[in-house]
Each structure stands twice: as C-alpha cells, then as structure tokens.
Amino acid sequence: MTPARLALCTVRRGWLRAWAALSAIGAAACMLELGAGWLHALSLAACASAAHMALQTLARRRELATLRALGMSGPALVWMLELEALWITCGGALPGLALGAIAAWGSGRSVGPPHLLPGQAAPLPASGALLPLAALLALAGACLLAALVPAIRAARHEVAHGLALLPPHQDG
Amino acid sequence: MGGASTLLSLSGIHKHYRHGEFDVHALCGIELQVGAGEMVAVCGPSGHGKTTLTNIIGLLEPPSGGRLLLDGVDAAGLGAAERAVLRARLIGAVYQCFTLIPGLTARDNVLLPLLLQRRLTRAERADALALATELLARVGLASHLHHRPARLDPGQCQRVAIARALVTRPRLVVADEPTSRLDGSALRMVLELWTACQREQGTAFVITTRDQRQLVRASRTLQLSDGRIGARQADLPRHYPRPASLHAARVEA
Description:
The complex is a heterodimer.
Chain A: H1 3-59, H2 61-69, H3 74-111, H4 118-121, H5 130-156, H6 159-164
Chain B: E1 6-19, E2 22-35, E3 39-43, H1 50-57, E4 65-70, E5 73-74, H2 80-90, E6 91-94, H3 106-117, H4 122-138, H5 154-166, E7 172-176, H6 184-201, E8 204-208, H7 212-215, E9 220-225, E10 228-233, H8 243-252
Parallel strand pairs in B: 3-8, 3-9, 6-7, 7-8
Antiparallel strand pairs in B: 1-2, 1-4, 4-5, 9-10
Helix pairs in contact in B: 3-4, 3-5, 4-5
C-alpha cells in the first residue's frame, strides 16, 4: 500500500468513525424527540380524557345518583365510568391512528424516499403494527388512570344530594 | 301500629345539617311505625322535612340520631354500602323529579333495578321484561314502552318512576310527591295498582304528598311541621282539610 493510499484510508476511517459517532448522537436525539412527542401526545390525551370525564360526571351527577339509589354499588359505578373512558379513548384513538397512518403514507409518497447516509436512517421508527399497538395500549392506560379520579369522586358523592339536583330541563 | 307486623319503626329520629354557620334541625325526634300493607301519607308544607324523612326511610342518608328498624334490621348505624344492599332488597322508591335515565327506554328504566341487583338468566330476564311491560300497562303506558324520557311528558315520566319502584316487589315503597303531575285517570290507575300491591303482596307505602286526592286512600295521615310529626288521624275523613289549611291552623293555634 502506498503511503498516499494509507493516509487516505486513515482519513476515511477517522471520518467514518466521526460520522458513526455523529449518527449515534443524531439517532439518540431523534429517539428522544420521538419519545417526547409520544409523551406529549399521551399527556394531552390523558388531560383531555380527565377533563372530559370530570365534566361528564359533573353533568351526570343526578343520573349517577339515580343509579346508586337503584342499587348500583360504588365499585360498579367506577367500573362503568372507566369502561366509558376506555370506549371514548378507543373511539378517538383508532380513527386518529388510521388518519395518522394515511397522512404518513401520503407525506412519504409526496416527499419521496429520503437519500440519507446509512447512519442517519437508523433512528427512523420501525414500521409494523407493534408501535401503534403499544401506543394505543399506553394511551388507554393513561386515559383510564386519568378517568379514575373523577370516577371515584362520582362514586363517593352523596346520593341524596345528587337526586335533589333539578333535571336539566328544569334547571335555572 | 306495632307488634309482629311492624315493618318500619322510627324512634327518636333526628337529622341535623350544617349549613354554613347555621345548624339546621331538619327532623326532631320522629316517632313512626308502619306495618306491612299499610299506606301512610305524610303531608306538610315545603321545607319542613318531608324529603329528608323520605331520604332517611329510603336509606339514602343516615339519621343524625335515633333508631331506624327496617324489617328487624337496625339500619341507622349502617354504612353506605350496607344501606345500599338493604335498600335494593326491601325498598322501592319514587323520587321527586322522577330521576329516569335519559338514555334508556321507559321499559328499560323500569327494568333497571332488577338488572342492577344481579345477573339475570335468560328465563329470569324474560320474566322481568314481562313484569316491566305489565307494570307499565297498569299505569297506562302500554303504548310507550320504547319511548325515551325526553319523549314522555312529566306525568308519564312520573308513572314510569312509579312502575320502576314496584318492579322488585319491594316490602316498602317510599315516595316523595309521587302523584304531583298526574291527572285524574292516571292517578286512579296508580292508586289501583298500589292498592293491589298492598292487598296481594303486603307492600307498605310511606308517601309524602300534598295531593288531596291521594290522602283519601291512605290508612293514616301524618302532619310534618318544622321537622316534627303533629296531627295523626287513624281514619281520614273525606272532608280532610288541605295541608296548607292544616298548617295554617297549627300556626294559628
């Protein structure tokens, strides 16, 4: 090997090492960004679910008190409200995921395949059903947790007070 | 009323509320015995404790003091969960403003207490459906089985609530102003149904009312004034004065 070729190889190896390190940092940053994005989306969904359930239980105090008065136990009421939260979450998340998948597919088609170096391609999310499924499960868990507090509050509310509230058409 | 046939016994029942800085004495030393198959009407002006009394008898809230025996069980000291079990087992209730579930049809509303009690088998469910249909027919709502509360007028909602209170064949029915929105024919049907329940099942009724037409059917009428039970009448005469007049008479005295 000529000295010139050797020098070129060394530079290349160094360059490659530096490129690999940069790629790793870039990948980690992308993963962090992706994770933060997921966390952001999950917290938004959980907050929305908690707010929705809190308002729902407030608006339905009379109805929930009636159910308690007719024999529904406190734990059964909590379960009912949790199931409702799960139903609402799935009702929102499944179309959301489908729309997201369509949007990703559309944007991928319009932008075209990325011409990146191999190291940069690594942080792109793995395709397949596992990630959306995991996201859906995490979302459902977050929303169930968020709905738990309003549900427990509703179950502890005084039945007699709830029944004394005027029905909506007689309110005010 | 007393002895072996006593289904409900209240002695020295008190109820205090804390309302801001004030202590409100809603009920003061209520004494009341109700036997199986008896209909007791409690009348009195608004704000004198009728709803509180029905809430306590209906085991919706505990008394602050006193003794409440229901079918031999001391219910005054029970926790909310135990009261709920006893309530589901023994009591049917008609609450003020009817409290129907808006998303359910009239028949499903009537069926609801049975569905909440336990899981029904297919045969039991068919029987329950037949019973709910029959009860609705007996209060004149045979053609409204599948109507939701939003499509019923207040009188019809009240009749659904009355049918719902009877679907579990309770030993005691507690009703707070149950006939306030009923016209003559609807009231007649309801009173006939209640009389049949008294006669056939020995159901006892404690009813708060200001409805003169309903007082005529009561075995006893009690006047509740300022949280105390006043005038008692074993047999109500047909010329029983209007509750407002009774209260005015008490005030004048």
